[in-house]
Amino acid sequence: MAAAVAATDRGYSVTPRQRLALLGGLLPAMVLLAALTLAPALYLFVVSLTPATPTNPSSLTDFSAPAQNYLSALADERFTESLWVQLKLSASTVIAQTVLGLGVALLLDRRARLVQALRTIFLIPMVLPPIVAALIWKILYTPDVSPLHRVLAAVHLPVSSLITNPHTALWAIAFADTWEWFPFTMLIILAALQVVPREPVEAAKVDGARPLQLFWYVVLPFIRPAIVVAALFRLIDSIKAFPLIYVLTSGGPGTATQVTNYYAFTQAFNYAYWGYASAIAVMLTAGVFALSWLVSAVGTRSSAHD
Amino acid sequence: MTDALPVVPNPAQGRASRRKRLGPVLANVALVAVLLFVLFPIVWLVQMSLRPDEDILGYQLLFTPTLVHYTSLNESKFLHSFLNSVVSSCLSTAVALVIGTPAAYVLSRWRLKSRRKIAMWILSTRMAPQITFTIPFFLFFRLVGLSDTVWGLALIYLTFNLALVIWMMRSFFDAVPRALEEAAWLDGCGIWNAFLRITLPLTAPGLAAVAVLCFIFSWNDFFYALILTRTNAMTAPVAIINFMQYEGWEWGKMAAGGTLVMLPVVLFTVLVRKWLVSGLMAGSVKD
Q: Biggest alpha carbon distance in chain B?
């Protein structure tokens, strides 16, 4: 820790006593943050090396077969299947949210007065407590109470419940997730659109560029980093999707909507296989960190461009 | 690169100008459609919470609103859960501000070599799946008796709130000129005295925004509360789900609970809309 605070204080004369005072302000937060994040992460890894389960108290310190949970996971069909479900959910929601977010951002761009009002309204789905968003879609997807199902029935196109059908349940969740989170990609892309320099755009217009050419060759290069960062953020968050799945389908029907995060949750808290669930959580965390390293790399590069 | 090209009259210009008139109209129609898509589900929940039970599934626009579902919530201990949400969110926000703000100030004034590493660490805590922290905290809470307490919840909410405060307040402090506090030091004022009297008041709007963001993120939590509480410290989001599972399908009551839980967030969002996205992306943009 002391080495970490060996500082380069740019032309800023700090006396040794002041340095001590500054250190006193920084350390409590760093220690607490370490205790709350690094320690649990390490402990998770330790637990993942044991067959921990509440029925056997000594199992928490049994390190006789440290790799067992990881080997079991690789052989566990429900685990590999959950990765596949995860991939389908992540790919579909990231693509839908990026495309819809980009489209709406383009519609809103340059409409100053509308933007102000609409931007705030479009924020609502993503700040809504996720459980309320899930409740809303539970209502809309339950045929008995859903206004949509009733309208479809009234025009003689009755649709049976989408969330109890294994072929449609995952897509119903993806649709609700897109409703909840496309505003996020939209806002990031809109912010990037609003700082696209005007000169190249005007010049291309004078030269007779059609709107599509204008977008593809002039605007897109400017906003591409923002699109990539927004999509990566959604990709990472899609791995953590929980309330929608918990409320709409509980991972079912069967295992049709059981993503990896949800599988780890059931293993840990429905079946109390703490060791095994920890191993899955460790792998999930490693995957998420690899992706966030990517975000950091892209984010740094895009802000270096400014 | 294209300055030299002459502007040639475009044969398609007639078509283009007609399209120019049609374009904005279509764009506005599309925007209205998106607006309806966003708002309709929310409005539906709210109107459902106001509809009398015998007409809960109705869809006539005209109905006599009733508060019966809200009063029935009062009888079902929902208020207790609502208070748990308020207490755990406020507690966690307060601790995160008290401990995180000085650290943010130090990180802003002191150009540490490990700044990038700290940024990466903060980004990781925002990115990590909740289950990473949940299993260790669950085992730890069982051991020390923090299960099913608002203290335990407030503590685990610090995992994201502390990082958020440090990250966002640092950028607000960066914007305050150092000359002011240096002048105060010359007058014999200590570092933290100058911080409290000069720098902190100047960042008050930012501080308020960060506080609201911390509150929203804690308030919105479902996963931690679901696993780490049972009855005592159950928060409002978990209570709503319990209406669904244990008390049969009381749609009116769930809609009323959902509306109540959503209300503070929607009101606060209007206040902090400028900072919301940077809050959600804490750690990733700019250093």
A: 80
Verify whether the Cβ–Cβ distance A179 to B285 is below 8 Å. no
- If you measure CA to CA, which chain B residue comes closest to A175? B37
Please, which pLDDT band fits residue B223 given cuts at 50, 70 and 90? very high
Residue numbers of the domain that contains B38: 13-50
| Pairwise CA distance, residues A63 & A46, whole Å | 9
Share of chain B above pLDDT 70, in %: 84
Are the beta carbons of A139 and B265 separated by less than 8 Å? Answer: no
Residue A208: left if φ>0, alpha if ψ -120 to 50, beta else—which one?
A: left
pLDDT at residue B189 tops 70: yes
Helix B251-280 to helix A169-193 angle (10° resolution) is 40
B58 found inside a domain = no
B109 and B26 assigned to the same domain: no
B279 touches chain A (CB under 8 A): no
Do B38 and B103 belong together in one domain?
no
Same domain, B18 and B117: no
- B46 and B169 share a domain? no
- Contact list, B241 vs chain A (CB under 8 Å): 131, 246-247
Report the number of distinct structural domains present in chain B: 2
Residues B26 and B127 in one domain: no
Inter-chain contact B103–A26, Cβ cutoff 8 Å?
Answer: yes
Of the candidates A253, A297, A140, A11, the residue with the CA atom closest to the CA atom of residue B255: A140
pLDDT tens across A282-304, in order? 999 999 988 888 877 776 665 54
Contact A128 B265 (CB under 8 A): yes
- Candidates B112, B129, B223; nearest CB to A284: B129
Kindly list the residues from chain B whose CB atom is less than 8 angstroms away from the CB atom of residue A8. 111-113
User: Best mutation site among B17, B35, B38, B98 for testing chain A: the one with the most A CBs within 10 Å?
Assistant: B38
Residue B266 lies in a domain: yes
**Long-range contacts of residues B56-62, Cβ cutoff 8 Å, at least 24 apart:** B56/A145, B56/B251, B56/B252, B57/A144, B57/A145, B57/A150, B57/B251, B59/A147, B59/A150
ipTM of the complex: 0.86
Residue B57 located in a structural domain: no
Query: Of chain A residues 91-120, which have a CB less than 8 A from chain B?
Result: 104, 107-108, 114, 118-120
Chain B: nearest CA to A6, how far in angstroms? 7
DSSP three-state, residue B112: strand
Classify domain A69-305 at the CATH topology level: MetI-like fold (1.10.3720)
